[in-house]
Amino acid sequence: MRRPGRSAHVALLAAIAGLAATERAARAHAVGISSGEYRLDGQTLYGDLGMAARELARWLPALDTNRDGDVAAEELAANRDSLAQALAAGMTVTADGQACPGTLDRAWVQEGDGGAIFQVHFSCPAAPKRLTIALPLLEGLAPGHRHMARLFWSGKAQQVVLDRAHARWTVLYGTSQSAPGVAWSMLKLGVEHILTGADHLVFLLGLILVGGRLRSLVGVVSAFTVAHSITLALAALSVFAPSPRLIEPAIALSIAYVGVENLFVADARKRWRITFPFGLIHGFGFAGALREIALPSAQVPVALVTFNAGVELGQLAVLSLALPLVLAARRASWFGDRGVKVVSVAIAVGGLALFLVRLAPRQ
Q1: Running DSSP on this structure, what letter comes out for residue 299?
Q2: Strand 130-134 versus strand 98-99 pairing type
Q3: Is 115 helix (H, G, I), strand (E, B) or coil?
Q4: pLDDT tens-digit map of 217-273
């Protein structure tokens, strides 16, 4: 005779622990993004760099003197020399193979949105034909961090997305960049965003856990997809974007709700009615990454479409693996009777715990 009680408790504790362990990565859905606008004027390259103050604290912990995970204006001002030294080592520019010494001109924190801004310039020996910008500083940031770089040279604007694996950008005089490179980068960013968004994945697991006819499950997932695509667009286009302090706890509550509802529903029929409004909330969460990117207005539609496509591809990849496993598991009587309830309780408790964590003031 089977004794599922002990296994049920282990599964419950493991699910809760796993969701709690991923909260740090899921909080605010911050993939980690910085931006840089560069302008070559003769033999001088001017740069305006921006990143979230929390990313600055991750890169240079010494600036965060009160250890609150952020860098305030006074902390930045008091450690300007340290920042200048770090930038000198973390960002290099060469012109036709010759080094261009850099200087930090200004640095400040925007109090409204918590963004840190640096103004720098690099003096090259002569007006270059080939310019290379390298960012070793990306090694000190999150593994998924992206640097959105835009260069103005001879009346032409070029753009690229840099990361740890591609931290060097070489531009030749007179060349221009097509949009596909940026589109491909945003597609990959969307895939990574959903695959590292543990709360979204747990929500999807809760939706398919109760099973049901394939048509009903497709309807539930489609409603979620349409809904989050709508709010992702609204937020990315700056039409409407609620504060993450409201959205993140609401996402956690949606997880808890699905876990509780699983204890009472028999299948997925008509479940799209609740999935759609929850999808609207999750879409605002997806938009967090795009809203941190200082893209020119002409690039926003392409970035929005390709980022959303990446999210959908990642979601389909997860569902293509999870759905057959869930449907196969439900054929076992022990899983249909007790397994679904145990996992659903774990999802509900984990979602509630996540809600309480996200309500707590950040230290």
Answers
A1: T
A2: unpaired
A3: strand
A4: 888 888 999 999 999 888 878 788 888 888 989 999 999 999 999 888 866 677 888
Residue 238 CB burial class (10 angstroms; 0-12, 13-18, ≥19):
exposed
Task: Spell out a b/e string for 255-275, using b for 16 or more CB atoms within 10 Å of the CB, else e.
Answer: bbbbbbbbeeeeebeebbebb
Closest C-alpha among 61, 63, 65, 70 to residue 30? 70
DSSP state at residue 175 = -
How does residue 136 score in pLDDT terms, banded at 50, 70 and 90? very high
From the centroid of its chain, how far is CA 126? 39
Q: Where are the domains of the chain?
A: 4-29+196-359, 35-178
Q: What is the mean pLDDT of residues 269-289?
A: 85
pLDDT reading at 106 higher than 70: yes
In this structure, are strands 33-41 and 102-110 parallel, antiparallel, or unpaired? unpaired
- Look over the chain and give the mean of its residue pLDDT values, rounded to a whole number: 82
What is the C-alpha separation between 53 and 51, in angstroms, rounded? Answer: 6
Name 217's Cβ contacts closer than 8 Å, sequence gap at least 6. 207, 208, 211, 268, 323
Would you say residue 162 has pLDDT above 80?
yes
- Which DSSP string corresponds to 84-105? HHHHHHH-EEEETTEE--EEEE
Give pTM, 2 decimals: 0.61
State the residue for tokens 């600036």.
63
How long is the chain? 363
The position carrying tokens 């609620």 is: 242
